[in-house]
Amino acid sequence: MLLDPDGRPTAAGALPPVEDLVRGYAGMVVARRFNEQASALVRQGRLAVYPSSSGQEACQVAAAHVLADGDWIFPTYRDTAAVVARGVDPVETLVLLKGDWHSGYDPYDRHVAPLTTPLATQLPHAAGVAHAARLRGEPTVVLALCGDGATSEGDFHEALNFAAVFRAPVVFLVQNNRYAISVPLSRQTAAPSLAHKGVGYGVPGEQVDGNDLAALLTVLSGAVARARAGEGPQLVEAHTYRMQAHTNADDATRYRSDEEVAAWVARDPLVRLEAYLRAEGALDDARAATIAADAEDVARRTRDGINEDVEPDPEDLFRHVYSRPTPQLVEQLAMVRDELARDALAAAPTRQEAGR
Amino acid sequence: MTATTAPTAATVAPETLSTAQAINRALRDALAEDPTVLVLGEDVGALGGVFRVTDGLTAEFGEDRCFDTPLAEAGIAGFAVGLAMNGMRPVIEMQFDAFAYPAFEQIVSHIAKMRNRTRGRVELPLVIRVPYAGGIGGVEHHCDSSEAYYAHTPGLHVVAPSTPADAYALLREAIASPDPVVFLEPKKLYWAKGEMDRGPVPGIGTAVVRRQGTDATLIAYGPSVPVALEAAEVAARDGRSLQVVDLRSLVPYDDAGVCAAVESTGRAVVVAEASGFAGFAAEVAARVGERCFHSLAAPVRRVTGLDIPYPPPKLEHLQLPSVDRILDAVDDLQWEDA
Question: GO molecular-function annotation terms (chain B) (predicted)?
């Protein structure tokens, strides 16, 4: 912890440059507003579901800010704010959760892998992307995100092990928000910490206050630099808390107490950093207003984009199953085309009806 | 369906290779021609694979091109996804059919779906080589016919060669394909030899007639093709002319080629080593029934493995489609002279 919950510097170490903190703060304000907007869009029936990262904005923003343009990031479904912070269009980011398609953005544009829902399965992909880059002598680092629950999956183990054996430049960032939907950390592991799991793979593990953006930037930048320098994968466990339920379909009051939530509200990552920046004179009302206006702009673009109805093209269902459709898919496409044509005819008034 | 990279070797002396040697040559040629091709898996390096299919590749191309991985099939498949996302063409080996099951989630949820999910932006040109099926006296978990799982999953191509020439040509095409291919290598044919200089070979998605015949059509693939050919030979001595179709590729499936063959004889038996219930042979029988009904003189019969876990070596002969079972099924095809 570099900043305590009230925004006072601790004696733990030097803080990152203040301009990085201001940029990070602005990113968190956007992330918080984006989370609120997306949750509102679920209530309005415009998104099918939204797993909010509210409360985890410091992790989301730091993950994006420590990477270079050529680096990759591998997000889960809860990491949409990190994807937006990486520079992906917010509407394209939410396509999966809106239900228009399974993924909305081009992963190669900003080097952001598709949002992944089967837990930990994207982690071995991250190791493979990193290894391919390393074989070509490229300086790419891959940052792979997962939650505490995902550390119980076999793919978490296999990904860390592969990355370590091949010295692949991957930073695994575990956002330990203490619950996998309703199941507490004590049912995921008996290890002293999730960072300890690195020991078994020969991967350095580090814990960090996940609500302290200054600490996150320092720890993650160090891990990225070591990975880039050829020191192999790094594991970072960030202690944080999701302020909302798992999704809109979840009822967090069944497994978390009001007191516990209140204690984490007091550790809000935005409040902490804002207090520090104001005390330092790096943030005043005018700057804060500009940042808030930028966040409002992102929210408006998100709202407008999601409120726009995109008519899905049924033929897309067949277009990308293979590079060229099999003969069987060609037949099935013809069948669906025929059905749609008949539906369209049935919806139109017959000539007789139109004449009446 | 597509042109293959098979040698047209009219000028090359006839050469006989085993299936394992043909696959090895396909890997070697692909590694030599394309620097993005990588071969990885368990024991594929210094040992050359438990079936010696990757013999000599690490020595020739180096540790970066053909390498051993940790013993973890999901990790191998998932790692290959990342390699393929980032410009490589990985060829991964699952040491035995039943050892591929830990990789099932990666194969079904990611390898098969990545192109579709990203609207074609991310393609995964990777090959999953699976030493496959039984007939070699293997112990439990070493003899599974797992094709139905893969063929049932949209997004995967599934290929099962039955000759060394096909093993070479189809693997080259699989490695060059922009789509993921599950490449099923019949273990019992690894040591079977065949000529390599047959000229251009039909591509993935095309069935071929291995033996001409006029009375009934045997439809087989992979390890069942030699058994079907043997049955046809025996039947010929009894005066019955059996045609043998080798599917070669399960996905894409060659409806047109299979139907044309069946319509030419009017009778069909599907031969497959996998358990019959809900298996790929059932799909073939159903498709032939739907499309060739008016040409059929009898219901399509299946000769498949029993619906039991694969037997121990001393009893495996009861599981495998035999010449006698095939001929019995042929006898049941409502012959007018019977």
Answer: branched-chain 2-oxo acid dehydrogenase activity; magnesium ion binding
